[in-house]
Amino acid sequence: MSPRRSYDQYCSAARALDAVGDRWTLLIVRELLGGPRRYTDLHADLPGVSTDVLASRLKDMERDGLTTRRRLPPPGAAYVYELTGRGRELLPVLQALGEWGAPALGERRPTDAVRAHWFALPLLRGLDGLSGEGLVEVRLDEGEFHVWLGAEGGPVYGDGPAPEEPDARLALDTETCEAVSRGALTLRDAVRAGRVEVTGEGAVAKVLREA
């Protein structure tokens, strides 16, 4: 394993960047906030990363206490990577970074890859404060994902349909979701304008319909 690089500065920001400042590291955290992932799953959802770089980043993150690796019991019998408590503490960091970077999104470029679950963290931010806890399923043109409000100790989102009956289901087009992600439109305003269809009988659905 390569020696850990450091800015060698007695500064908390520099220390943080020692651990997460390398290219791809925070995007790996973004993926693992959705729960344990196999190496092949991570590689598929991080288009552009080489296998060598991904393997190196995962080793560095394990060394720095951000992730752990464990073997699934049969019949899975595959290794998965997951965030430690220290790694999960990067959620608000990623959300703040996403909010800061939202104005730079602009129109999607022809070369831009996209995955439905990449909208999970911006939408989670938009749902903040609507209800204490809840499971929300989201359907976009690109696919489905779900988010947990008030999640503690587990994934904050997941790919695909909700694993159980959600408190709310949201259906919206990608254009609306992109506008919410950029901060050009709030989720409440999108619901009021009829750009988001809300179904379900849970507290979250009721709050959104009353927005």
Automatic annotation (TrEMBL):
The keyword Transcription applies. InterPro entries: HTH_HxlR, SCP2_sterol-bd_dom_sf, WH-like_DNA-bd_sf, WH_DNA-bd_sf. The keyword DNA-binding applies. Residues 11-109 form the HTH hxlR-type domain. Keywords: DNA-binding, Transcription, Transcription regulation. GO terms for molecular function: DNA binding. Coiled coil: none annotated. SUPFAM superfamilies: SCP-like (SSF55718), Winged helix' DNA-binding domain (SSF46785). PANTHER family: TRANSCRIPTIONAL REGULATOR, MARR FAMILY, TRANSCRIPTIONAL REGULATORY PROTEIN. This is Winged helix-turn-helix transcriptional regulator. It comes from Streptomyces sp. R41.
